[in-house]
Specification:
With about 210 residues, this protein is an all-beta fold. It contains no helices and 20 strands. A hairpin with a 4-residue loop joins strand 11 and strand 12. It is globular and about 40 Å long.
């Protein structure tokens, strides 16, 4: 299995690395212990903005206009929602529940009126309707699935224990490739050319480029 070389890295601003999103040339990063979102310069890691958001937990997503942060109680303990946030002001606009099995939600990617979720321990990658939780696609994934991200017609998720980045076909769920990563990955995002991920053990945000 090919190991992807880290092309660039910046130190994480805190020690509990959760979500990651790419927005207009900057990284947004979330910490579940502090319940904060950070806007970061991807070149040097400088903190540009900090917002306090209630109950930050796990993954972060950007739909082209708004940030969506998984929120809820604890790790695999309580129900989870996804909270819509204005990146210009930090104002919470709405909170949308993620269904009866939301305790397992680790990864999230909001795309219009649909949402992809990664269910940790259950090892599922699902596309659902955002407001009804109707399951539209349901694929098998690695049990410790963490961050997920759409990438130019493809889809990536990372797996914490085995230090994996896995590419899948979003139409069929078929696995296209898998790669080894440095550290244990959590949050994941796509900048249009490369994947960025939170290396939880190394306390870094890393950039890699999977072959396309």
């Amino acid at each position: 299995m090919e190991k992807l070389r880290s092309l660039h890295s910046i130190p994480s601003p805190t020690s509990h690395l959760c979500g990651l999103a790419w927005v207009d040339g900057c990284l947004w990063y979330s910490d579940g212990n502090e319940s904060t979102l950070y806007k970061l310069d991807p070149e040097n890691g400088e903190t540009l903005t900090v917002y306090r958001i209630p109950d930050v937990n796990a993954s972060l997503s950007y739909d082209g206009g708004y940030l969506w942060q998984v929120t809820g109680e604890g790790y695999l303990t309580g129900p989870k929602s996804v909270t819509k946030i204005d990146p210009e002001s930090g104002v919470v606009l709405e909170v949308v529940g993620l269904g009866e099995d939301s305790v397992y939600v680790a990864g999230v990617e909001v795309c219009g009126d649909k949402v992809w979720v990664g269910l940790e321990q259950r090892g599922r990658l699902q596309q659902r309707r955002l407001y009804t939780c109707e399951i539209l696609r349901d694929y098998e994934a690695e049990p410790r699935i963490a961050g997920i991200t759409a990438a130019d017609g493809s889809f990536f998720y990372c797996e914490f224990d085995q230090r994996l980045l896995v590419e899948v076909d979003p139409e069929t769920g078929g696995e296209l490739a898998r790669y080894r990563l440095d550290g244990n990955p959590t949050g994941l995002t796509w900048d249009g050319d490369c994947v960025w991920y939170n290396d939880y053990t190394g306390k870094k945000i890393r950039k890699v480029k999977p072959p396309r």
